[in-house]
Here is the input.
Amino acid sequence: MPPTVQELYELWAGDSELRDALQRSLEPRGLDSLFDAFAALGPRPGELVVDVGARDARHAIRLVRDHGLRAIALDPVPLHGDLARKAVAEAELTSEIEVVEAAIESMPLADASADWIWCRDVLVHVDAQRGLAECARVLRPGGALLAYVTLATERLETRERAELVDSMALRSFDAGEIEQAAEDAGLVLRSIDRLGSEWREAMIEAETWNPADDLLALARLRRGDYVERYGAPAVAAARGGLLWGIYQLLGKLCPTVYVWERHA
Here is the structure.
């Protein structure tokens, strides 16, 4: 039974203890937890990691430095390739990291050539069936894929989902679809870690992200004449990007870390 109006205001008047409890951190894990998860898999110096969707190669550089690995920084976007090559050169790691412009669905790599695959913020944008099949092909037997992917939850309304799909170039957005694609590719699930809102909480507590700024920008997008000035696609993309973190806090999106292994 929902509360009456009187009961509601009595609840609000007497919730000081709850309000105090909500001021205390739940010790959320931060972005470094993804690197911790990779380290726990036991990478060894000299092994090859393929960073799929490498963007500016920042993650590939860290993985090489942390574990003495070799890396292929792979991304289909030419701008990202240019940024990655520049970053690798500045890091003086050109002999350890090769930059390759290619997509996860068609990697120009030999069968069973990679020990590890690092895949962050990629699977939502691609054909998961083809992409994960390619990952299985290039992994050696016993090799593992660590994938970070943000997925829709049952809290995401139909119209909200459609808006994100249209504005954010999303394709594979559901846990069931991703997990079935991995199974079809012959990858064996080792672990699932549903992070939920943890990273966003950690960012707020560290003062590296302020959701109020994004909410203010969303309000301005709704009221201003930005479509006329910048075009509907630009405004839709901006709105989707701003909603992404807010929806994580609200439980409409769930960042999730998968580890899959290729068996012989």
